[in-house]
């Protein structure tokens, strides 16, 4: 199934929000202690503000036949904190990455990831970084297959 990638527009809000709902529901099911069930995890106002940010880019994946938005990713280009103990770096941080569940394992995710990697590299980023929950085995497998590796772990202890 052929796919095409393009930058997100204001008109993509509903499609992206529906994808976010799918991911949000997964997070709510596995981590109800962290994620609250809400009807609209992404408000229209917040989405529009995201589109206006200079260092933030949102890409969508469309099914070439139906033009349905079936995936999206947002990434932000960021410099490391200016601290004497850190080596200065410039990285792309992936805030969101989602492919509609009915389109997974058809190549859309790899195409989207390759697109954001090329974008990041073209804008001087030295790496791509993201956060993934331990429960999300499919995402961990996907990112590992793309060559990503664990950078650090954030642990918790319930009290």
UniProtKB/TrEMBL annotation:
Gene3D superfamilies: 3.40.630.30. One of its GO terms (molecular function) is N-acetyltransferase activity. Residues 3-159 form the N-acetyltransferase domain. Keywords: Acyltransferase, Transferase. The keyword Cell membrane does not apply. It comes from the Bacteria. This is GNAT family N-acetyltransferase.
């Amino acid at each position: 199934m052929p796919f095409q990638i393009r930058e997100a527009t204001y008109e993509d809000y509903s499609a992206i929000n529906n994808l976010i709902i799918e991911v949000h529901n997964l997070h709510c099911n596995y981590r109800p202690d962290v994620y609250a069930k809400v009807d609209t995890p992404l408000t229209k106002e917040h989405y529009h503000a995201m589109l206006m940010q200079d260092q933030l880019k949102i890409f969508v994946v469309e099914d070439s036949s139906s033009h349905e938005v079936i995936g999206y990713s947002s990434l932000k280009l960021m410099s490391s904190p200016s601290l004497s103990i850190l080596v200065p770096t410039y990285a792309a941080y992936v805030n969101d990455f989602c492919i509609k569940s009915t389109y997974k394992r058809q190549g859309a995710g790899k195409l989207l990831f390759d697109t954001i990697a090329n974008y990041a590299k073209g804008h001087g980023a030295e790496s791509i970084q993201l956060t993934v929950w331990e429960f999300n085995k499919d995402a961990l497998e996907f990112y590992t297959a793309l060559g990503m590796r664990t950078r650090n772990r954030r642990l918790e202890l319930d009290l």
